[in-house]
Write a structure and sequence with these properties.
8 helices; seven-stranded parallel beta sheet; binds D-gluconic acid; binds NADP nicotinamide-adenine-dinucleotide phosphate; globular
Length: 256
């Protein structure tokens, strides 16, 4: 039987929000598997530093600094990649923010910022990537980052939860339109992971204890727990997986 390949040599992977956190680990994992990178973040200086760190490890890294909520900036970034002859074969829609506030205290601006960053961005960036994948006729891989909140809700994170639930269904909608073009579109739902986004939670003894008791694995996850699923969904081993969300969450969405 031919060996199952996880090799991404010759592929180019764009990861949004990859100057830090989970996105940075995803970028390194994809590079470790052989992909060249297009790293994105909103902060150009932070992105340059993160890109330099991965180049120092011998990886090929292009930088594309843009705000994933800015359609014109996204279109300009892809036009620049076109001009530079850089094709995006793998897209990880990772960039996202959290905002913790009871619904009755939320402003529409609060709501719109989270929805724009965590959901609308995935539509815009994937639209630009998919246009090119379809025109090339050689398929592609799109990985949308959801959350355990694509499945379960908790108080004070309503816009985030709505956005991540949208990610789950947008993944299916993209599949409905693009799977016959050789593009696989899947989502990943990480559980509670130790990153900058959650520093307020890990520092809260009560919440920390709750996560460790509520999660069947009895621990927080780390970026290393998620990166293997990203590499799997970015490569040929997942060519018949489409429209799915894979929860990498220590079992929290599986057990009461
Ligand atoms: P993080 O540590 O805050 O990193 C997010 C990255 O995205 C940062 O580098 C941030 O840049 C960047 N970013 C934010 N807004 C952006 C924008 N408008 N345009 C471009 N880049 C932007 O968060 P994380 O924990 O790694 O989360 C990454 C993704 O995983 C998010 O979609 C999150 O919802 C999801 N997720 C996280 C967890 C978890 O437990 N941590 C679990 C499930 C899902 P700046 O810092 O410079 O703003
Ligand atoms: C929160 C956390 C969660 C996690 C993650 C879980 O406030 O509950 O930020 O939203 O970050 O999304 O999958």
């Amino acid at each position: 039987m031919a060996g199952i390949s996880f090799d991404l040599s010759g592929r180019v992977a764009m990861v949004t929000g990859s100057a830090a956190g989970l996105g940075n680990r995803y970028a390194e994992g994809l590079a470790e598997a052989g992909a060249a990178l297009v790293m994105n973040d909103i902060d150009a200086n932070r992105l340059a530093k993160a890109a330099a760190e991965l180049r120092a490890k011998g990886y090929t890294v292009h930088e594309a600094a843009f705000d994933v909520t800015d359609e014109a900036a996204i279109e300009a970034a892809f036009a620049q990649l076109d001009a530079n002859g850089i094709e995006v074969h793998i897209l990880v829609n990772n960039a996202g923010i959290q905002l913790r506030k009871p619904i009755v205290e939320l402003t529409l601006a609060d709501w719109n910022k989270v929805i724009a960053t965590n959901l609308s961005s995935a539509f815009i960036v994937a639209r630009e990537a998919a246009k090119r994948m379809i025109a090339r006729g050689s398929g592609g891989k799109i990985i949308n980052i959801g959350s355990l909140t694509s499945e379960l809700a908790r108080a004070t994170v309503a816009p985030y939860t709505a956005a991540k639930g949208g990610i789950r269904m947008l993944t299916r909608a993209m599949t409905a339109e693009w799977a016959d073009k050789g593009i696989t579109i899947n989502a990943i739902g990480p559980g509670y992971i130790v990153t900058e986004m959650n520093k307020a939670l890990t520092a809260n003894a009560t919440f920390d204890s709750w996560v460790k008791s509520r999660t069947p694995a009895k621990r927080w996850g780390t970026p290393d727990d998620i990166v293997g699923t990203v590499v799997y969904l970015a490569g040929p081993a997942s060519d018949f997986v489409n429209g799915q969300i894979i929860y990498v969450d220590g079992g929290i969405t599986a057990v009461l």
